[in-house]
Amino acid sequence: xxxxxxxxxxxxxxxxxxxxxxxxxxxxxxxxxxxxxxxxxxxxxxxxxxxxxxxxxxxxxxxxxxxxxxxxxxxxxxxxxxxxxxxxxxxxxxxxxxxxxxxxxxxxxxxxxxxxxxxxxxxxxxxxxxxxxxxxxxxxxxxxxxxxxxxxxxxxxxxxxxxxxxxxxxxxxxxxxxxxxxxxxxxxxxxxxxxxxxxxxxxxxxxxxxxxxxxxxxxxxxxxxxxxxxxxxxxxxxxxxxxxxxxxxxxxxxxxxxxxxxxxxxxxxxxxxxxxxxxxxxxxxxxxxxxxxxxxxxxxxxx
Length: 303
Fold this sequence. Notes:
Layout: E1 2-7, E2 17-20, H1 30-40, E3 49-52, E4 75-80, E5 84-86, H2 87-107, H3 109-113, H4 121-143, E6 151-153, H5 156-176, H6 192-219, H7 241-257, H8 260-287
Parallel strand pairs: 1-4
Antiparallel strand pairs: 1-2, 3-4, 5-6
Helix pairs in contact: 2-4, 2-5, 4-6, 5-8, 6-7, 7-8
């Protein structure tokens, strides 16, 4: 069959092109179209391409042209997404930043703050909370997460890393590990109930977050983009309990440290996760007609 590919960039000199594809519309997949484009222009590997119909609706790589109502002789649109980088690599870079930054501020405090002091119990506990959180993130990135999209634009690495390296890295580390919270300072005093209660709730939230990530992993067979309705721990109340538990974990850090820097990061992170949760919640409800109607996006019984 023949298929015309036009560029969404009106200044393109490479498009439109006509592809002569082997097979009929009910046999040829969108991925095969991407591969045919790559043969003509090697730099446009499939993950760098976004193909849409003339109404700018994205075409799923796994579907055949017939399933998308694209017939012989039709025209589709091409967009170059730019150089790509793997999601797994991006996550490792993002979470690796705080794992380097926090020890620098914690162990080299004399050189950073210009004075020697002993860290308070609160500072030490928060330090290990942050380190264990991001170590868990790295573990999940390598062994748990299955990504529906293999890559993202390379330029996004800097934006995504900035969130973690600056807000949860330098911002948290500088203000929480400083001499104003040192041992003996009134601002660092915490009762045993406050301290150990915080540790218990934080550990529960982190473990719960891991459990929900494993649930999501088990919904998607390896090497596929398949989506299913998640059920089980946390999912009976909200569509994205992983975000709910993460928010609880960072709220504990904020309450324990009482630092405005922790609250700032918590506010920004929670706001971003809520935006993602609402979008995912809407996709679930649109894609699955039998999706539970009593679920909220991220906050049980609220939103």
